[in-house]
Specification:
Shape: globular
Number of strands: 32
Domain Calcineurin-like phosphoesterase N-terminal: 51-127
Helix content: 10-25%
Strand content: 25-35%
Organism: Myroides marinus
GO molecular function, one term: hydrolase activity
Largest sheet: 6 strands, mixed
Keywords: Signal
Domain Calcineurin-like phosphoesterase: 140-337
Structural class: alpha+beta
Length: 503
């Protein structure tokens, strides 16, 4: 459960469901059949959803359409039909590769209809526009935890984070760019969704939103009742889409237990069953990118074995991994407020992102020393490359170095924080231009985080923030007579980052 986040103020917000239609739909009335479910007190009413997927007046075949339970493919002429029911809220398209991602008025992706439960037959039409530029190569940003709680934080998001992201988007030199808001878009204050949406609109790229624990309708008796506000703005909380040769999935792994704000990391059977059906139309060997707020796994609990993991990892993650077997899968997450890239196996990588808000908008870094920022990904065919972009920093800034005496636990060593490191990275140091050896990885705190966060009076804005142990700290001990030191870091894609230090 979320006992680790005991800093949250207790508030209870309840939002009613809002009728939202994302595309122009039309319906014809028909005879309604009422089915009374044995043992239940709700009336189950079947609703038929039928329609077509078209582009330039022609139907598109083999496009996935779903109501969150069933998944069907369009026929040769683009037609589909689903017998849904009044306990489903949406019918949505898995946008096929090669077509534009439409946007809602709030800047987020438009890929769904809200089912009209007053009509026995809903007729819908998904109209797609071909891309002008191939999406074989495409890009996306992952924004974890903007988590704005106050107006001044929203203004900081708009005035600092957004311009930085706009610069990154421009540097990509492509029109095929989208964003993923990886949950905790706000911090319990629903009135600030408007500010978050403004940030998304200012970026001028379509965004797919992930449900986070701080985006919920709080104070509800069950998990099922916590999504109404999110659904009203962004549509379903789990769905899929396609770009180029990659299949993208968004899941909701925040499960509220009906006890205040407490939740666990958990994927419902409904979602797992839907995911199996969704992936049945994706060939084995394909690259699949799954975005969810809570990471499936983190090394935090190896570093802090006395902490509870229920609210910080997906408890039934092995079942997710089983479904993803046979695919080259990447899991995108946030939630932890530190950066961590974990190679789970040869075909599965967890990308737990540092946050847009850093350490809850208290300063420039997360509490593991990672700069506040976001992930930047480039897909070339089925291959994915990435880097972490610190807000206000060059994309080439991928580590921070501390000299002898700056790390309180390793005073005789230089220390280096390589925040996006994984097991395929390399790190060396040079003395007077001569390579001396490989850096040694340790579990330790970041010296800047210690300086900014340690103790009951720091940081001034969020005094409960403390420096966090991380597995991406490195050490080396140079010779005493050396005149210059170079730190060289090589990422898994062969990109070299280096800094020269004169002594």
């Amino acid at each position: 459960m979320s006992s680790r986040r005991n800093f949250i103020k207790n508030i209870a917000l309840t939002a009613g469901a809002t009728s939202l239609v994302s595309m122009n739909s039309f319906a014809s009335s028909g005879q309604e059949e009422l089915i009374y479910v044995s043992g239940g007190d709700k009336t189950f009413k079947p609703i038929k959803v039928e329609g077509r997927v078209i582009s330039n007046g022609k139907g598109i075949a083999r496009v996935s359409i779903s109501d969150g339970q069933q998944v069907v493919l369009t026929d040769a002429n683009g037609y589909f039909s689903i017998v849904s029911h009044n306990q489903r809220d949406f019918v949505f398209i898995s946008i096929p590769s090669g077509y534009e991602i439409k946007q809602l008025s709030n800047g987020s992706a438009d890929f769904f209809y809200r089912i009209d439960k007053n009509k026995a037959i809903n007729k819908v039409e998904f109209v797609l526009k071909p891309l002008q530029e191939s999406d074989h190569t495409h890009h996306f940003l992952v924004l974890a935890d903007p988590q704005i709680q106050k107006i001044e934080e929203a203004e900081q998001l708009l005035s600092e984070s957004v311009p930085d992201m706009l610069g990154t988007i421009k540097s990509l030199g492509s029109t095929n760019v989208f964003g993923i808001g990886c949950g905790d878009l706000i911090w319990d204050k629903h009135e600030l969704f408007e500010k978050y949406n403004q940030a998304v609109k200012n970026l001028s790229i379509p965004f797919f939103q992930v449900f986070g624990n701080h985006d919920a309708d709080l104070g509800q008796r069950s998990d099922e009742k916590t999504h109404f506000t999110f659904n009203a703005m962004y549509g379903p909380q789990y769905y899929s889409f396609n770009r180029g040769e990659i299949h993208y999935v968004v899941l909701d792994d925040v499960f509220f237990i009906g006890k205040g704000k407490e939740y666990i990391g958990y994927l419902t059977e409904e979602q797992l069953a839907w995911l199996e059906k969704d992936l049945a139309n994706v060939p084995k060997g394909s690259t699949v990118v799954v975005s969810q707020h809570i990471p499936s796994y983190t090394g935090y609990f190896e570093r802090n074995p006395k902490s509870s993991s229920l609210g910080a990892m997906v408890n039934n993650r092995e079942h997710l991994y089983k479904i993803l077997e046979g695919y080259n899968a990447h899991l995108m997450s946030g939630h932890t407020h530190f950066n961590e890239t974990i190679v789970l196996n040869d075909s599965l990588i967890e990308h737990c992102h540092g946050t847009v808000c850093g350490a809850w908008w208290s300063g420039p870094i997360c509490f593991d020393g990672t700069p506040g920022g976001y992930g930047v990904y480039t897909a070339k065919g089925a291959q994915l490359e990435w880097y972490y972009k610190g807000t206000g920093l060059s994309k080439d800034v991928q580590f921070r170095t501390y000299r002898v005496g700056e790390h309180p636990d390793f005073k005789d060593n230089w220390s280096v924080n390589i925040w996006n490191w994984d097991t395929q990275w390399q790190a060396y140091w040079y003395e007077d231009g001569v390579r001396k050896g490989e850096l040694v990885r340790v579990t330790a705190k970041d010296p800047l985080s210690i300086k900014l966060h340690e103790g009951p009076k720091l940081p001034e804005k969020r005094k409960w923030v403390e420096p966090e142990l991380t597995d991406h700290m490195f050490l080396f001990k140079p010779s005493k007579t050396v005149k210059s030191i170079t730190v060289e870091v090589i990422d898994r894609f062969g990109r070299v980052y280096s800094e020269l230090y004169s002594l």
